[in-house]
Write a structure and sequence with these properties.
Strand order of the largest sheet: 1-2-3-4
Distance between the termini: 69 Å
Structural class: alpha/beta
Helix content: 25-40%
Number of strands: 7
Shape: globular
Radius of gyration: 21 Å
Order of helices and strands: HEHEHEHHEHHEHEE
């Protein structure tokens, strides 16, 4: 049934010249390997670079040989996997005893194999993830922790997932050049690691060459003397 559903989706996309976005193997079951079918269909129809497979959390539970086989297939087919760290860390491994699986797809291994990996924020405020703020930096922050990507170059690569890899299915990131449509965020920090660490909202949001949002930095006041909170309103 799942294989037939995938064939139908690819048939429709091929007829219409559309891209394919599949929520794939979002489970802890190590026997769920529909990503292999996705990769095969992508290759058979020469749709590499036009197919996204979201979640792929079952890959976290594959044994070594199975994981290597899937990683090779993903790379060969040029399917882009998108991880959703906030949701996955909450939903996957929920019914495990100890030790509990983290349940994210194999982001470090996908990156090491040369794949473009997308970074998503699947839910914002809903029963599956009630704590979302719609800030992709929160997802990046969680990914660094949950996948042990805390090395300097690893954190910079996570930042590139947001500003580069995430745009691959849409033809690439908007260009910053004269004559191009200006679509970008302006942060108050220069270092990508600090941007992830502090997770500040952008100073400016620019769309179509127009500043559509501006955020002032939070102000903190440090008092010279201790304040008695009990008398704060007096």
């Amino acid at each position: 049934e799942a294989t037939e559903s995938l064939r139908i989706a690819f048939d429709i996309a091929e007829r219409r010249g559309s891209m394919v976005d599949i929520h794939c193997d979002e489970t802890d079951d190590p026997h769920s390997r529909h990503i292999e079918t996705v990769c095969q269909l992508t290759q058979d129809r020469d749709m590499g670079g036009h197919v996204v497979a979201g979640h792929c959390t079952a890959m976290h539970s594959y044994n070594g040989p199975a994981a290597n086989k899937v990683l090779t297939a993903i790379n060969r087919a040029q399917v882009q996997v998108v991880t959703n760290p906030l949701d996955s860390i909450v939903l996957q491994g929920r019914f495990d005893n100890y030790p509990k699986r983290r349940g994210l797809t194999r982001v470090p291994e996908l990156l090491q194999a040369g794949n473009k990996v997308g970074l998503g924020h699947d839910s914002v405020v809903d029963p599956w993830y009630p704590l979302g703020m719609g800030n992709l930096l929160d997802a990046a922050y969680m990914l660094v922790h949950a996948c042990h990507l805390s090395g300097q170059e690893e954190m910079r690569r996570v930042f590139q997932m947001m500003v580069s890899d995430n745009h691959v299915p849409f033809g690439g990131a908007p260009k910053i050049a004269q004559g191009e449509s200006a679509e970008f965020l302006v942060h108050s920090l220069n270092d990508p690691i600090d941007i992830i660490r502090l997770r500040r909202v952008p100073a400016y949001v620019v769309r179509g060459g127009i500043i559509v949002a501006e955020n002032q930095p939070a102000q903190t006041s440090v008092f010279d003397e201790a304040i008695d909170i009990g008398n704060f309103n007096k």
